[in-house]
Structure formats: C-alpha cells, structure tokens
C-alpha cells in the first residue's frame, strides 16, 4: 500500500466512497516508505490559548511502546511512540461538572451524547499535555487506507486516576449491559488524540474494537488487559464551536445516509457502537473549514467478555 509523493501532496478532498475500517491491530509491517513525518512545533500558532493553570501540571513523560504507525497519505513510520505520563492534576474530582445524557436519534443504531463530562480547564490540560508530547502524522498501531485519516495524532496511556475519575462521572449514564455483556469497571487507558488543522478531515469509516490497555506494574511498558473488550467509541471533544472552530462536525450514518451531525463542544462526548458487526456506526469527521484547530480524544468504553447470564464478573487483569 504505497503512495507516490505526487499523490501524497495532492490531498484530494472527496470523501472515500468505500466503507473503510479502522482495524484494532497493528498495521502490516511494510517498512519505511521514505516519507518523513512532519512533527509540529510544540505550540502551533493557531492552538487555543491555554490558561496559566497549565504550567502547574507536573508531567513526567516517557515512551512505553513503539509500534508501526500509519501515515495519512499511505506508507508507514516504524517505531511510532506511545507515551505515558504522570499528570496527577489532570482531572479534578472536586471540580467535577454535572454530566448529562442526551439522545442521538440514529434509527436502529446506538449513539448518544454526554454533555459536561470534563470542564474547560480540564480540556485545556489534555490539550496542553498532549501538545507537549508532540502531535505527529503517524498513528501507531492503527491501520487506515491512504487519504482516510488526515490529521495529526498522539497516542498515550492516560493516568489511571484520571481514567477512573472519567469513568466515575459517566458510569450511571452508560449502558450497564450491551448484548449481554456488563460494563467493565474501567476505561482503557490508551487514548488516541487527534488534532485537526484547517483542511484536515477523517473520511468515512467504522472504528475497530480493542482490548484494554494500561501500564505494566513497573510503569515502564504498555500492558494489555484480559477479560474485557471495547464495545463503544467515546469521542471526547476538547474544544469546539465556542472557540471558533468552523466545520469539523462528526457525521453519523444510518443505512448509508447521514443521520446525525454532532458539533464539537468542549466537554461534550459522543458514544456509538463499534467493531466488526452490523451494529457498528459508520461515521466521518468533517473537514475543518476555518478557525482554530480541533482537538478530540478517542477513548474505548470496555465491556466484560463474560456474559451477564454467566452470573460471574471477572475484573480486568494484565496479560
Ligand atoms: O474527529 C471526529 O469527528 C471523528 C474521529 C474518529 O472518527 C475517530 O477517532 O475514530
Ligand atoms: Fe472513527
């Protein structure tokens, strides 16, 4: 799956006609394709202003895995990093907003929204922290055909405490069971963050389903969990139209037609079914037209592999 430099530079804007899948496994090892990833400056001029509180966020960042990364216009980058960091103040339980559930009518398909999952200050911390890790072209461990994902990305293992607080805020609003499987007590800590600069987009696809990931006991490596597997995509918007974003909506499809258009707002989260099954929701991230860069976190909501009917609950364990 190689792409000539001429095609790589032309960046055609037409939406992909075929249904593409974001596979939840490592891309095929295909070697270095000679396209060097452009790594952005730490704070691009159009990034939202971050409040002073950001400077108080103690961050000790380290690489916990290196995987083959897929480049937006085709080709691969070997050794694309997955990061971890200690950021104790990322989410503040004392400052938790009142999270609310909102319906998204999408025919037979399951999709819903939550408002005020995180505060503006917390969203700014996510942006600041991930900008300090560095957004890049290559996405580690996911496979996208050329021209489908046109944005910058950083993948990281978020702190356990932050993910536990996020889960606590949403738990009562998430489906307790899905297709006979019980909601797992924690979210995967592996977050794919995306930054869309003007002109960037994510063409039509369905998301892959994933095992959960956290850190090894000594904190130096990424560890895969057993007993749990994702069933829902959560897209957490870290900024939005109130920051001047024009375009960049997430469009959900039902029976091949656009069924719902979700405008990014800070602290809003969109949920929908994913994986290789008929319930999976086809969707796209619309082209960012103007304004400031859009930031979104792709998070996996986990359900136990054991069925509810079995009457047993197995907590996730590290492999
Ligand atoms: O940014 C968006 O609106 C869509 C992102 C997306 O589809 C994904 O992360 O899988
Ligand atoms: Fe997606």
TrEMBL record:
Please list the cofactors this protein needs. Answer: L-ascorbate
A Pfam family assignment: 2OG-FeII_Oxy_3
The source's domain of life comes to Bacteria
Q: Which SMART domains match?
A: P4Hc
Q: Which residues cross the membrane?
A: none
**Record keyword Metal-binding present:** yes
Signal peptide residues on this chain, from the entry's feature table: none
Q: Give the PANTHER family listed for this entry.
A: PROLYL 4-HYDROXYLASE ALPHA SUBUNIT (PTHR10869), TRANSMEMBRANE PROLYL 4-HYDROXYLASE (PTHR10869:SF246)
Q: What is this protein called?
A: Fe2OG dioxygenase domain-containing protein
Q: Which organism is it from?
A: Tabrizicola piscis
Lineage, opening ranks: Bacteria, Pseudomonadati, Pseudomonadota, Alphaproteobacteria, Rhodobacterales
């Amino acid at each position: 799956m190689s792409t000539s430099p001429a095609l790589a530079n032309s960046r055609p804007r037409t939406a992909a006609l075929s249904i593409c899948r974001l596979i939840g496994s490592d891309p095929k090892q295909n070697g270095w394709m000679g396209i060097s990833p452009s790594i952005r400056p730490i704070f691009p001029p159009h990034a939202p202003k971050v409040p002073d509180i950001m400077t108080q966020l103690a961050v000790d960042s380290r690489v916990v895995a290196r995987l083959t990364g897929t480049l937006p216009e085709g080709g691969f980058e070997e050794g694309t990093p997955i990061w971890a960091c200690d950021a104790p103040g990322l989410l503040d339980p004392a400052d938790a907003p009142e999270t609310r559930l909102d319906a998204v009518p999408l025919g037979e398909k399951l999709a819903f929204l939550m408002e005020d999952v995180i505060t503006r200050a917390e969203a700014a911390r996510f942006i600041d922290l991930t900008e300090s890790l560095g957004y890049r072209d290559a996405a580690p461990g996911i496979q996208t055909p050329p021209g489908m994902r046109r944005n910058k990305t950083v993948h990281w293992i978020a702190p356990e405490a932050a993910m536990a607080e996020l889960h606590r805020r949403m738990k009562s609003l998430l489906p307790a069971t899905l297709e006979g499987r019980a909601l797992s007590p924690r979210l995967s800590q592996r977050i794919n963050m995306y930054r869309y600069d003007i002109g960037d987009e994510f063409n039509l696809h369905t998301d892959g389903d994933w095992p959960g990931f956290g850190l090894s006991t000594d904190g130096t490596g990424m560890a895969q969990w057993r007993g749990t597997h994702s069933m829902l995509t959560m897209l957490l918007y870290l900024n939005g139209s109130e920051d001047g974003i024009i375009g960049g909506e997430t469009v959900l499809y039902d029976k091949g037609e656009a069924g719902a258009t979700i405008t990014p707002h800070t602290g809003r989260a969109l949920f929908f079914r994913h994986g290789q099954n008929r319930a999976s929701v086809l969707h796209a991230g619309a082209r960012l037209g103007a304004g400031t860069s859009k930031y979104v976190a792709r998070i996996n909501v986990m359900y136990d592999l054991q069925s509810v009917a079995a009457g047993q609950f197995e907590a996730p364990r590290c492999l």
